[in-house]
Every structure is written in structure tokens, then in C-alpha cells.
Amino acid sequence: MVRKTKEDAELTKRRIMDAARAVFLRRGVSRSTLEHIATEANVTRGAVYWHFKNKTEIFHAIREQVFLPLFDKVDDVLSHVPDSSKDPLSQIEASLCQTIQDLDASQTQREIYEIIMIKCEYVDEFAAVLHQILDNCSSLVEKYELAYQRAQAKNLIAPKLSAHALALDTHLFFGGLLHMWIKDSKGTQFRHQAIEMIKAHIDLRRKL
Amino acid sequence: MVRKTKEDAELTKRRIMDAARAVFLRRGVSRSTLEHIATEANVTRGAVYWHFKNKTEIFHAIREQVFLPLFDKVDDVLSHVPDSSKDPLSQIEASLCQTIQDLDASQTQREIYEIIMIKCEYVDEFAAVLHQILDNCSSLVEKYELAYQRAQAKNLIAPKLSAHALALDTHLFFGGLLHMWIKDSKGTQFRHQAIEMIKAHIDLRRKL
DNA sequence: TAATATACATACAAAGATGTATGTAAGCAA
DNA sequence: TTGCTTACATACATCTTTGTATGTATATTA
Asked: Could you tell me if B154 and B88 are in contact, meaning their C-beta atoms sit under 8 angstroms apart?
């Protein structure tokens, strides 16, 4: 069968991306060949080359599937300042919990995170991805910092530390949490207590 | 030239490992071939195959170069309980700072960490490495927890949180810190403030 | 409905990488 | 000094992977 309609073609493209995700997860990005991906998607390499220039482009397509919506969401929860019913600390907590709950709900997201974190080598074309992630992190930290400043203004936290230090600490904590969460794919070590740990992390900042 | 003495041979092996480290760092583990490594070490693939079974074995040899000494050191700083001049919180702080300072001092260590964290895909033979790391982490957390318990016993920290929660929070924080530290190879974003951030993290726990 | 572009499948050539087999000169032990 | 072993280098066969070129049947459009 050849020459499908446009909708059919879009479907094939999706199938290829889904297949690539599965193959990347199983064999790592480097060891995955276009042939593997094509087979998994029940097409030939011809179809793959039609929709994507090469493996790298597939990787980026998959990545964007998760990262474009992600930052919007963080913004939503964190930056929704006006007459918020929640205090700033709870906003940060909610933002972090939201990400975890999203991961809990979506296997696709989990898989993409796993690929990005431990099934990909950041060299050459992929090195740029790292810098992009780092940049995004910076803007995240800034948002945490603003929230902590609001919390300080409302006298919710002990004035031990600067908002900046608190924001960085939270950011590193959550980075570490995400890594552990992903690596603990059996869910026995970290996943089940992730939410508690976020609450604990925030509680540590609360004035009694 | 052929047939060196035993000492010469050991030297060649080291040279191959050093070369492999450089090549892994530059091209990632997967894209590195034994030919690349041999060329970098100024030998032929014959020499490489003589000293190592395959690429995986080289990787493990490099890895052990760092991880075997590492855990000893953490133990040294953290578990050296008897009549310690430092309070438990400072011990934890010192242990974390020590690791960062070690990384600061040794380019070799930095490179190996970078390879392990962002230039290697954890599939197949490498998947086991991840589990090993996770296991080591668990024992680390236990050591933090013991230290925090001692701190609680000495009434050094507010009783807001359990020692277990504090230990996990510290562990995740430091995991995140290490990742950022390594990724920020230019040193502009995180490296220069790593020590401060560790102090801030610990200070957050201190009773005023 | 004829022409063209689309959505693939198939075939081919070239390069890369791996493992092994074989060669060889020098060290070392008896 | 002979003979065995070590520490490699060289050569070869095989498999994989990639990119591209070509074929082709069907949508789409004018």
C-alpha cells in the first residue's frame, strides 16, 4: 500500500515517533538504528527518511513532545500570582507535585524523560540540548526565587537564607528528585515517597 | 617496537585508559571505537585487545578508577564518629564539600564523572551500572540519616522533620548539585557557588 | 482527466566497526 | 642458548549502518 492521504501520513509519522521512543528506551539512542525503528513501526526505512532527515531529528521531535508543554505548565502553576488562594510556598510545592503527578499519569512522558536522562549521550548534535536545558533551568530558578520573595514578604519563612539560596536549593533538590524518580523505575525506592519528600522539603522552610 | 617489559606494558595499559577517557569525553561512549582509542593512545587495536576484552571493559576500568576510592572517602569523613571535634551537621557539610573539592582538584575525576553522567547510555551491559549506583546511594542516605540522628540527639536541629526526611532531602540536593556542577563545565552558573550552596543547605537545618 | 506531487518501498554503494587470525620481535626462564 | 611466552602490529572477513537513488502507485489539483 502506498500513497496514503495526508491524515494517514500524519498517522504514520506518529507511529514512527512512538516506535522510536520504544526503541530508544530499549536500546539507547546510539544503538538504535533507523531499521530498528522502521521495523517497530511496521514501515520501511523509506518511510522514516520521508518524515525525518535522520535519527537526530526524530530525537528532537520526541523531545519537544514533552518539553514544550512542560514549561508552559510550570508557568501556569508558579506564575499565576493574582489573588491566588494559595500562599507562595504552597505554590512552589504544587508546581513540583504537579510535575511528578504528570509523570505518574503519563507513561509516554516517563519514557521520554528516561531517554533524555539516561539513554542518550550528550555529544555533538546533542550537546546543544544540554545547554538548552540549562538555560531553561535558569529561568525556572528565577521563578522559584520570585515565589520565595513573595513568601518572605508575607513573612512565611524564617529569614535565615536569601530567596536566591532557597530557590537554588529547591531547584537542585528537584533535579535530584527527578533523576532518582526516573532511575527508580521499579518504584520501590523513591517514587512512592516523592510527594512526601516535596512536602518535607517545603515544610523545612516554613516558619512554625 | 615490540615486546616491552612488564612495567612498559602496564604503562601502555594506563595510556590506553587515559586515551579512552579523552575519546569517551569527546565522542561519547557509543560513538567511540577501539580504533579511535588506539590512535589516541598511539597504539594499534591489537594492543587494546591485548589489555581489554572490549570497549565495555575499558569503561568499567575507568569507572572503578573513581568509584572505588570515592566511597571510602565519604566513609572517612562521615563515619569518623569517635570524639569528633565537629558537630554532625558540619560533618555532613564537610563530606559534601570534600567531594566538590576533590572534583575541583582532579580533572581526571571531573572527566570520568562527566562521562558517567552525560556521555553514556544505560542500556544492556551498562544498565547494571545504574543499579549499582542506586544501591550505593541507599547506603549513603543511611549514613546521612545516622548523622542527622546524632544531630537531633545533640539538639542541633529543629524537630520539624525526621532524620530520614532530612537525609533524603540532602541526598537529592547533592545529586542535583553534582549533575549541575558537571553540566556547567564553563563554571559560570553553578560551580563557583557550589560550596556556598552546600553551606546554605546545611544552615537551613540548624537551630538558630 | 491529465499532470504533478506525495508517501512511501526497494535496491545499491560506500564506509565503519568488530572480532579474530596470524605474524613477529623481544623478554625471560631453564 | 634454546624454547616458550609476552606484547603487541597487521591483515582479513564479516556484519552493520547510513544515505541516496530509483521505482511506483495513489492523492490531489488544475
From this structure: yes
CATH topology of domain A63-203: Tetracycline Repressor; domain 2 (1.10.357)
Spatial contact of B91 and B77, defined as CB atoms under 8 Å apart: yes
Mean pLDDT across the stretch A151-178? 94
Chain position carrying cell 537526530: A56
Residues A180-197 have pLDDT tens digits of 999 998 888 889 999 999
Q: What is the 3-state secondary structure (H, E, C) of chain B?
A: CCCCCHHHHHHHHHHHHHHHHHHHHHHHHHHCCHHHHHHHCCCCHHHHHHHCCCHHHHHHHHHHHHHHHHHHHHHHHHHCCCCCCCCHHHHHHHHHHHHHHHHHHCHHHHHHHHHHHHCCCCCHHHHHHHHHHHHHHHHHHHHHHHHHHHHHHCCCECCCCCHHHHHHHHHHHHHHHHHHHHHCCCCCCCHHHHHHHHHHHHHCCECC
- List the single protein residue with the shortest CA to C1' distance from D16: A33
Question: CB of B102 within 8 Å of any CB in chain A?
Answer: no
- Residue numbers in B 5-64, CB below 7 Å of strand D: 6, 8-9, 12-13, 38, 43-47, 50-51
Overall fold of domain B1-52: Arc Repressor Mutant, subunit A (1.10.10)
Spans of all domains in chain A: 1-52, 63-203
pLDDT for A82 equals 52
What number of residues does chain B have?
208
Give the CATH class of B66-203. Answer: mainly alpha
Q: Which value does ipTM take for this structure? A: 0.91
User: Which chain A residue has the Cα nearest residue B208?
Assistant: A160
* Nearest chain A residue (CA) to B196: A165
| Residues in A touching B171 (Cβ below 8 Å) | 176
B172 and A180: CB-CB below 8 Å?
Answer: yes
